[in-house]
Amino acid sequence: VIAASLRHTLRGEARRVAPDSIVEIHLHPDCRCEFVTRAGISGEAALLGTSFVAPYLTILNLQPLEGRWARHVVILPDAVNREIFRKLRVVLKWRCGKPSEEA
User: What is the structure's pLDDT at 103?
Assistant: First the structure.
């Protein structure tokens, strides 16, 4: 069971190769998110206050409006444009309910 969970997590969240992996996010000024999966399916989600923001790592915890389970997006600074990552962190910290932060 643990090995299956690890495989699912690595495939979906870490490597983003699973068809239901979130590969694109649009954050609205009111902190709603639109996302697109690798399979091209779009959805809308609310940003949860349990999201984590730090200069070295950002984790977005999303609750899809049509869905039961929360989705998680891990963003590392070397995976995106530096300036866009900085702007995302500022918006998440100061506009979107202040997700938990370390540092």
Answer: 46
